[in-house]
Design a protein that fits this description.
The chain folds into three domains: about 50 residues, Arc Repressor Mutant, subunit A (Orthogonal Bundle); about 140 residues, 2-Layer Sandwich (Nucleotidyltransferase, domain 5), CATH 3.30.420.40; about 180 residues, ATPase, nucleotide binding domain (Nucleotidyltransferase, domain 5). Helices cover about 40% and strands about 15% of the residues. The chain has 16 helices and 16 strands.
């Protein structure tokens, strides 16, 4: 017989507290009575919880804007309460492949200060020293905001174990980071709680907390981000699904060409081409930015006529921006490579839709600056996904800006250290 477990009063109290904070965050300003009705809790319980939040300066009573229009004799308008957006600040840091960015935000995601620094070293010890130096500069230049920090969020590409606070896997880059206690070491250095998260999962959290208008009321969605890697975290009931070791959502590892997967890479180990084909037959080997560039270089070497040779005479320095420009101009080779890559993304997402059944799929990443790439993904997805007649699926490309990774890291910190604590 399967064992079951109960919940003690302390656990229930914590769950009620988290439920109230989530409701205030997503629906505030709201009355205590409405919170009680929606959560199915007694008015006395809500009064006690909100009184504690007000005493801790997390929540405040706000003026009911409709009170002036209330006719005389119809009773007093209920007092509304809301999260104090300036009760804390949050620091988000993105350790990107091309740069390091930071944002200091308030509790609603408004950016109060931001900046950009050089890309971090692949050597973990050097990177740690660089990051500590950046954090010291931020503290000196924004002392008033730093002194109100709830915590620090750090986002990075690759598989991240956010439970333990370390990078779990990079295939060929930043290998010395693997398994290192990055969150713990930064927490020790700053004296603040630190949340380490995958950069695309962090973006998903930012959407649920800071940009809910993108969701049109949906609480379950998939965010597919196509860049040098391909990730597709799932948000279920407004919370990012992590899995036991936080590796969920690594859609790029999905094998789409089994015959190719049986082969080994034909490229030199550690080369740029080998990075694209680290998992032959996988979505990343077929549709990532590396894969797109590798295919274009291959066609150029074979002598195919393409405007890419004029846009970038040295094919080894070819960038995605060149390919996208050629695609916009109707270059046959660039269009063919991009269409094939996006077709495979659509096939992979069709499998995801059949399993998770979200009603919304968001597409992000530099390839979607050309809308036709999102259209190609959507056509393949709609063709191959099993969609009942009454099921509605929306596919929407989104651009969250160049600081999305840092803002997402800040959102992950709020979710962990305020909403879920």
């Amino acid at each position: 017989m399967a064992a079951t477990s109960g919940r003690n009063s302390g656990t229930v109290k914590q769950e009620n507290l988290e439920a109230v904070k989530l409701m205030l965050y997503r629906q505030g300003p709201i009355s205590r009575a409405e919170i009680a009705v929606q959560l199915g809790l007694t008015p006395a319980t809500i009064t006690n919880i909100t009184a504690d939040l007000i005493a801790r300066n997390f929540v405040e009573e706000v003026q009911n804007e409709d009170a002036s229009a209330q006719p005389r004799g119809t009773g007093r308008k209920p007092i509304l309460i809301d999260l104090k957006r300036d009760c804390f600040t949050v620091l988000g840091v993105s350790l990107g492949r091309d740069s390091t960015r930071f944002c200091l935000c308030d509790m609603r995601g408004k950016v109060l200060a931001s900046g950009i620094y050089e890309v971090m070293s692949d050597d973990y010890s050097v990177m740690l020293h660089q990051l500590q130096g950046i954090l010291s500069l931020i503290r000196q230049r924004h002392e008033d905001l730093w002194n109100r920090l709830l915590g620090i969020g750090i986002s990075t590409p690759g598989v991240v174990n956010s439970h333990r606070g370390h990078v779990k896997n990079h295939i060929l880059e930043r290998q010395s980071w693997r398994g290192k206690p990055l969150a713990e070491e930064i927490s020790r250095f700053t004296g603040l709680p630190v949340r380490l998260e995958n950069n695309v999962k962090a973006r998903s959290t930012a959407i649920t907390l800071f940009w809910p208008e993108l969701l049109n009321g949906e609480t379950t969605f998939a965010l597919c981000h196509v860049s040098f890697g391909i990730a597709c975290p799932f948000v279920l009931g407004s919370r990012v699904f992590e899995g036991e070791d936080a590796a969920a959502g690594e859609i790029g590892k999905m094998i789409l060409e089994p015959d190719t997967a049986q082969k080994t890479s034909v490229f030199a180990p550690g080369s740029r081409e080998d990075a694209a084909f680290a998992l032959p037959g996988s979505l990343e080997a077929l549709s990532s930015v590396n894969a797109i560039l590798t295919q274009c270089r291959k066609h150029i070497r074979e002598g195919e006529d393409t405007m890419l040779t004029s846009l970038c005479p040295d094919s080894e320095t070819l960038q995605l921006s060149h390919v996208l420009e050629a695609q916009r101009s109707g270059d046959p080779m660039a269009c063919r490579v991009m269409d094939q890559a996006m077709f495979y993304v659509g096939i992979a997402l069709a499998n995801i839709v059949d399993i998770v059944n979200p009603h919304l799929v968001l597409l992000s990443g530099p390839v979607f600056t050309n809308r036709q790439n999102a259209d190609t993904v959507e056509k393949a997805l709609m063709r191959y996904a099993f969609l009942p007649d009454d099921d509605v699926l929306h596919v929407l490309p989104v651009d969250m800006g160049e600081y999305a990774g840092a803002i997402g890291a800040a959102a992950s910190c709020i979710e962990k250290y305020f909403l879920r604590s």
